[in-house]
Amino acid sequence: MLYGEIKLEPWMIFSSKEHFLGVLRDFCIQEGFALTPDKHDSKRFTARCYQKQCNWRIHASMLMDGVSWAIKSLTGEHKLCGRLDANPMVSSEWLCKKLMEDIKSNPDYPVEGLQERCRVMFRIEVKLRLLYKVRNMAKELIHGGFSESYDLLPAYADMIKRTNPRSYALVTWTKEIVGATPHFKSCFFSFGCMIKGFFEGCRPIIGIDGAHLSGTYKGQMLTAIAIDGNNEIFPIAYGIVDGETGDTWHTSSDA
Ligand SMILES: [Zn+2]
C-alpha cells in the first residue's frame, strides 16, 4: 500500500470480512482519518468519521454467498477534518505487518529509519517508542521469542556434540520438583576448534569477563578469551548464567 493507492467505491467486493476491514483500515490511514463504528456484527458494518461534525459514512455487508463482502454505500466528505497527527487506526499489529519486509531485511533497522519510512510510505507520524515495540514484535515473528530460543538450547548442545568432535556443550536446569517445571539455569559452550586453537596458537593466559544481558530473561554472558599470535582476541568458551559468581564460573569449568 502506498499513499493514494487505495480508492473505495460503492459495490467494491472483498473476499471476506477480514479483507474488507483490512482495506478499510489502510484507506483510513492513507486518508488520515479515523472511524467510529456504529454497527458491527458478523453480517454488516457501518461506521462514520471519528470527527463529530463530519458527515462521512460507510456501510458494508456480507453477500448472498455468505463469505464475500461489499461496500453498499459511501456518503459524505471530510470537509473540515484535516489529517490526524496521530491516527488511532495505526496499531502496532498494522505497523508490524507493513514494516515486516524492512525489518526482515535488517533486524536492527534503526527506529529513526522506520519512522522516516512511515512518513514517506504512509504520511503518518509514529512515536519511536511504538516503533521499538513493533521492531521487537516483528523479530519475534521472524525468529521466534526468547522462550522458544531457550527451549532449543538442549537440542543445540546435542547437535554441537554430535557434529563438532571434542567440543563441550552443557545446559543445566533447576532441580526437578514435583508439580514445578524445571527452569533454565545456565549453559556453557566451547567448540573443539577453540580448545585446539588455544593450545596450539595462543599465549597461556586466559581472560575472563561477564556482560549483563538486556533481553527478557536477563542473566549474564560469561566469556573466556585468549590472545593469539597476531595479538587478536581469541574466544575459548562462553556461557550464560543467572549471575556472575564463583559458583557459576565453577559450574562452567566443571563441564
Ligand atoms: Zn471526516
UniProtKB/TrEMBL annotation:
Residues 14-65 form the Transposase MuDR plant domain. InterPro entries: MULE_transposase_dom, Transposase_MuDR. It comes from the Eukaryota. Residues 206-250 form the MULE transposase domain. It holds the Pfam family DBD_Tnp_Mut. This is Transposase MuDR plant domain-containing protein. It comes from Spinacia oleracea (Spinach).
